[in-house]
């Protein structure tokens, strides 16, 4: 699932590809998408993008003509419009020629040039969404990457919130306080600090200061650590890594977000914990997989298993279920025999005595012990014989009666 770094790289991609490009006409939506229409059409406009945590905002700005006397045509936009995107599980932007549109492109912006090119929002699983004429979601906190001071203050000033009662691995996914952190980032951050994922969040954050002693340090630019940070032992805290680890992903650039080549080998090399061989994995209380090393911590869910083990057991249950279905649909001959035997036992009265000689009865007992039970076909034949014999008796009586009548008539 795209997280804060991927959404920021997506905004950089849009700005780079759409720089100097003039768009025109209406914004079009695919027929299968259930997201709202974008009521915007213009003869000429530009597109720019910004990101904040797990959101990307496209701004459509009409290009005003130099002729002040020229009036805007009816139905044409004359003011900028913002569209806020949430990428869901698989959303991203592409800028391609019109004849190379992705089959899962769901929102389309057409350029004015010929041949036409299209900026499209591609979402294979259709979990993503967009909202026109709105700003950032108010229930999301400051961005972990580009609003670090506000992010740090927002967390430390709300530690009394019940949200911090839970384990740190689950609290890190709360976008009200950690806007931009997702599944792989939480695993990498906790792994680097050697923090078990299922330790209460409040106990880890209570001792942190509102001022970051590492604020003047930027490892990506090679700046020296402040003197105050050296006195503290030179180790950044949890909130600091929530800021710096995502920036490391941003610095990977095209190795993380490249819709054209889809080559993520650089990103996979960067990962130290998430989905890495030798690491443990377990599902949290909401069913999301957390990767870690060592002991999970005291707040681990009861009866939790590795997702892989759970998947195997589920597959085995599915196979058993299909086998039962097959048996129910087409019973074997042995099953039929068992059913017939049970029916004969239940139908026989308790005080029933076999009228046949003991020898025959003993033979019958031996055959039953040996499992020789009459099949449905034999029962059908015996039933047919009974019907035949029963139907033959009245016929014989009728013939005798008719014979007497003919004799009397002859006399």
UniProtKB/TrEMBL annotation:
Q: Which residues form the signal peptide?
A: none
Note the CDD domains from the entry. Answer: MeNeil1_N (cd08967)
Spans of biased composition, class Basic and acidic residues? 314-326, 351-382
Q: Which residues form a coiled coil?
A: none
**GO molecular function term, any single one:** DNA binding
Q: Which Pfam families match?
A: Fapy_DNA_glyco, Neil1-DNA_bind
Q: GO terms for CC?
A: centrosome; chromosome; nucleus
Q: Which Gene3D superfamilies did the record assign?
A: 1.10.8.50, MutM-like, N-terminal (3.20.190.10)
Its GO biological process annotations read:
base-excision repair
Stretch list, region Disordered: 289-411
Role played: Involved in base excision repair of DNA damaged by oxidation or by mutagenic agents. Acts as a DNA glycosylase that recognizes and removes damaged bases. Has a preference for oxidized pyrimidines, such as thymine glycol, formamidopyrimidine (Fapy) and 5-hydroxyuracil. Has marginal activity towards 8-oxoguanine. Has AP (apurinic/apyrimidinic) lyase activity and introduces nicks in the DNA strand. Cleaves the DNA backbone by beta-delta elimination to generate a single-strand break at the site of the removed base with both 3'- and 5'-phosphates.
Alphabetically sorted, this entry's keywords are: Chromosome, Cytoplasm, Cytoskeleton, DNA damage, DNA repair, DNA-binding, Glycosidase, Hydrolase, Lyase, Multifunctional enzyme, Nucleus
Where it sits in the cell: the answer is: Chromosome; Cytoplasm, Cytoskeleton, Microtubule organizing center, Centrosome; Nucleus
Q: Which SMART domains has this protein been placed in? A: Fapy_DNA_glyco (SM00898)
Q: Which InterPro entries match?
A: Endonuclease-VIII_DNA-bd, FPG_cat, FPG_N, Ribosomal_uS13-like_H2TH
Q: What protein is this chain from?
A: Endonuclease 8-like 1
Q: Per the database record, which ranges form the Formamidopyrimidine-DNA glycosylase catalytic domain?
A: 2-128
Q: What is its main location?
A: nucleus
Presence of keyword Cytoplasm: yes
